[in-house]
């Protein structure tokens, strides 16, 4: 009974549902873009340089992959509150706060995985690139270019993590109807209201998105293996 | 790759042929000598072949000659040609292909030395190693022999004065080996100095101008090819040429 | 190469859309910190569009427990606070965080319980006696435990019965630290008794075997109040827009809107703002 009314809700193209899905995608995609701009170069840098304390940074990055979203949400909340250090920006309870929180959450994931991928490729390429006298910029560009399919997969993983979390966006967004309400927070809210059809409907949409992201990641790997070895 | 780059001729006139001289070179790792006491001059003949049993230090010597490793003792001197340069290129025993097409691999090597990656140049290099048909194929999907040849093309793209090859036909069948040997011979004939290691005595006889014979990290014998094969002057060399295990 | 360009373009587009969305949203809007019971009842979905149509002001409601909503006001993260715990609201104004408190509407609390009624208190008229009976019987009782208005009311009733289960923590007293909907879900599942505001109860869609066990006691009266956050404490407060909302909600028009909100023909909230 609940399942069929959930489906009916999705198929009827309910405007509120659509708006919620759209905001979810916007927030998580923006967060991935922001995290990528910071995380990918940082990960590549760590992969290719040696300096004292590098080992500690690698371990910390890997550990931060498991940052609990709700803790990130709390820290960003305290920072962005009017009574907090960045309060004058007036960002609390806005989509931008949600983007920032999710970006903080997934930057370590992107950086740690990029480091791993680039470092592995560097181990393979090092002798050849040295023998070909490739300069530092050429080397980094070659590694990033040849690792591009793995990097895309990493981005998709980051997106999946962002789209599925509820703790951070709930705290810094405030779950405001029509403004900061996303799929995950709506599912939590509607469940607590006992409104199962809508909660299940959104749950299905979210699962479909997560599956689609994984299928896309698989296709990218598959295509890359066939065409670039 | 910091090495002495000096003109060899004391008279001041720059020599026409490139070469490398090793003075009492040694490489020790964790207290163990991989190579020791190597006094060697490369470049007197077009093709120098490094011979010796497994573990004798051939690969290490090649890496030192390339500048991929630094000696812990002694000194390596590069002789520059009349342009004041001495460019070296290396073909690894198991070459690593970049994850792109064969042609793109060569293009990369060209750009790395600041040369333009013109399609004609790439085609010419591919033709030189017989890989025109494979130009657009992903390099990692080529066969072992094709990858070896592509690595050779990448090295030649650098227009090297000295070409170093580590067991270039070790994993190839006789037909593929012949193709590679022909290319090496052609390259040597064009004035490039070749230094290569090999297990294959027949190949050494076919290609060598002079032979450097290594045993357990020491240069046991260095002689022009005919003399080495006909009248080796050390016991180890005699045993090696007779097919015995030299321990 | 083209893949990278594509990615860059995509990233730029996303960030631009995001900032555009935000810029638009900044226009004429206020943040109201209110309670989960008011939100869960669906009242805001009904009255806020009316306010926006009249004034063009967008009201963004952050729904939390009363205690949390007041803290949001204290931190200056909201412009208006709209909750239902008189004592705490008066304290808020006394401390200087609120400008002035206005009555808005009332409803009542009801004691919800399973149809099976393990403590045998259904139909009772004396809430204090009923709570004592629950304590005696050791019947499962779900508490919101989240410093909300409902939670404050619940603790006050236990105190009137001479009991402090939140301190003694007997096994039958289950504090969940969540909103009204979650508390009702939990009471339905355990099963157990729970104090709820009538508004949320009426609009709750997962009633299962729960029914109203006790209602009508005068001590179950639940008054809602609204306050403007003091701009003297937080200059960022949008005092004109915030005051406009308060003025509207206590006006005959706003009060009528509250009165008109019904679920299945049943009115949830009873407006009682002081007539001007």
Short synopsis of the structure:
Chain A has ten helices and no strands.
What string, H for helix and E for strand, traces the elements of chain C in order?
HEHHEHEHEHEHHEHEHEEHHEEE
Largest sheet of chain B, order of strands side by side? 6-7-8-4-9-10
For the largest beta-sheet of chain C, the strand count, sense and barrel status come to:
10 strands, mixed
Secondary-structure element string of chain B: EEEEHEEHHHEHEHEEHH
Named CATH architecture of the largest domain in chain C: 3-Layer(aba) Sandwich
Shape category of chain B: globular
What does this structure look like?
- The complex is a heterotrimer of chains A (229), B (247) and C (276).
- Chain A contains ten helices and no strands.
- By secondary structure, chain A is mainly alpha-helical.
- In chain A, helix 5 crosses helix 8, helix 7 packs antiparallel against helix 10 and helix 9 packs antiparallel against helix 10.
- With 247 residues, chain B is α/β, with parallel strands linked by helices.
- Helix content of chain B is 33%, strand content 26%.
- Chain B contains eight helices and ten strands.
- In chain B, the strands form two sheets. A six-stranded mixed sheet of chain B has the order 6-7-8-4-9-10, sandwiched between helices. In chain B, strands 1-5-2-3 form a four-stranded mixed sheet, covered by helices on one side.
- Chain C folds into two domains: 154 residues, Periplasmic binding protein-like II (D-Maltodextrin-Binding Protein, domain 2), CATH 3.40.190; 113 residues, D-Maltodextrin-Binding Protein, domain 2.
- In chain C, the strands form two sheets. In chain C, strands 1, 2, 3, 4, 5, 6, 7, 8, 9 and 12 form a ten-stranded mixed sheet that branches. Chain C has a two-stranded antiparallel sheet with strand order 10-11.
- In chain C, strand 10 and strand 11 form a beta hairpin.
- The chains are: A mainly alpha (229), B alpha/beta (247), C alpha/beta (276).
- The interface between A and C is large, with 35 and 41 residues.
